[in-house]
Amino acid sequence: MTDCGAVDPRQFGCNCAKWDRHLGTAPAVTTIDLEPAITLTQETSAASFAYFPTCSTYQPCALTLSTQSEQLPVTHHGSAQNSAGIQTLLDAEREASKIVQKAREYRTKRVKESRDEAKKEIEAYRAKKEEEFKKFEAEHTQGNKQAEEEANKEAEARIKEIKDAGKKNQDKVVKDLLKAVFEVHPVAPTQAAA
């Protein structure tokens, strides 16, 4: 609610006879703004309702407010009716505030729920991929273990063959080694041509 001070309504086009009596002592004009941008100027973008306390005319007068889109007539009302209107507007504002608060709470709740759902989905996806990796690793490690076991068996078989061959000819090999070490046949080197 804004008190606009003493305003001569004739500057807005009001021809109400009661205002002629109050020249120079025009009563204060009280404006109830429906939106923050609403005022009694010609640059307004939304309508205002005015209450003129000394005017007892309940008929609409010629007072209009200029807006960018249209001319809006202003109706003079009594103070009891105006108080009820103000109370209605205040109640509507409180109700709107409650609705906005509930919407904010709902949005906050939905954001938290969405985060929780996303975390659950991420954990489920991670568990699924870990299980797939373990399964893949087990399958491929199994193949590697089998190849490793086959290679070990093959190596053991070759080692056994070599040991068997060594045992078979062990006496002959020892004899040949001892003979090469103990039976030395010295040979004179041939001189190179000088």
TrEMBL record:
Residues 89-172 form a coiled coil. GO terms for molecular function: ATP hydrolysis activity; proton-transporting ATPase activity, rotational mechanism. Keywords: Coiled coil, Hydrogen ion transport, Ion transport, Transport. It comes from the Eukaryota. The keyword DNA repair does not apply. One of its GO terms (cellular component) is vacuolar proton-transporting V-type ATPase, V1 domain. Gene3D superfamilies: 1.20.5.2950. NCBIfam families: V_ATP_synt_G (TIGR01147). V-ATPase is a heteromultimeric enzyme made up of two complexes: the ATP-hydrolytic V1 complex and the proton translocation V0 complex. Subunit of the V1 complex of vacuolar(H+)-ATPase (V-ATPase), a multisubunit enzyme composed of a peripheral complex (V1) that hydrolyzes ATP and a membrane integral complex (V0) that translocates protons. V-ATPase is responsible for acidifying and maintaining the pH of intracellular compartments and in some cell types, is targeted to the plasma membrane, where it is responsible for acidifying the extracellular environment. PANTHER family: V-TYPE PROTON ATPASE SUBUNIT G, VACUOLAR ATP SYNTHASE SUBUNIT G. Belongs to the V-ATPase G subunit family. This is V-type proton ATPase subunit G. It comes from Coniochaeta ligniaria NRRL 30616.
